[in-house]
Amino acid sequence: MTSQKQLDANRANAKKSTGPRTDDGKAITRLNAVRDNITGQIVTLSEEDRPVFEKLRAEHVADLKPQGVSELKLADAIAWDTWRLDRLRATEMNIYAQGAENATNDLETAEAYTETYRNESKRFELMSLYEQRMTRSLHRNREALRELQRERERKLRIDKREEVLLARFEDLKDLPYRAPTEPSPNGSVFSSEETTKAAARQRSMEAAQYLLNTKAPWVKYGFSGAGSPDLFAELPYRTPPDCIPPKIHGVSPESIALRKFYHPEEFEPRRRR
Question: What one-character-per-residue DSSP string does 1-12 give?
């Protein structure tokens, strides 16, 4: 068994290593394998491709906003599918470029492309099949990620509604609301400030809706066939102004609301005889 002293010496010697110096050594190590920090698998990419792929994956993760291991793995799979599709398309273009390497004008380039397609038709057909499969995989992963996010957001709305209800209950008792320290059964975590603001907003929305439901139509809708709201705002309810005709025609919300307000009997369900 290696002693601790030997391990420390090995680590000290490793720090002095400068890596490969010759061109052959650098060519061998340019494809060194690296363990992926998301999947945990060994991945081999060139030194030129690795930063490009890492940037692509970081952009996908930032755009898709995954939460949790399952969503993160799906976002990573989407990034890999995109990378593979881009690489496949680049390979197709490179095959055509190799075929037209010796062309000197546009006509020779077009002829070279035609010859390349004729000679490599089987390869292009196989690449097209791969592209279709990777595209389907990309769409499946996207839909699976959306389904997980929809379910997570649904659970979040349920938990938030419950916390807002508890916050309002504490407010009725003149007690400050304190968010639970443990996550909910669905894994949701809320702060006291966030829940208190949501409860205050819900209370204001309900008060606004109640006031609107008790206002006369000309106050709610403003100017309509009844005239200016300033003329009739002080009139008692159920007292139609003189300018209201006995019959209101049209299907606008204002007309229907006015008719229902002054003649509610016309909107009562009829009894069968």
Answer: ---HHHHHHHHH
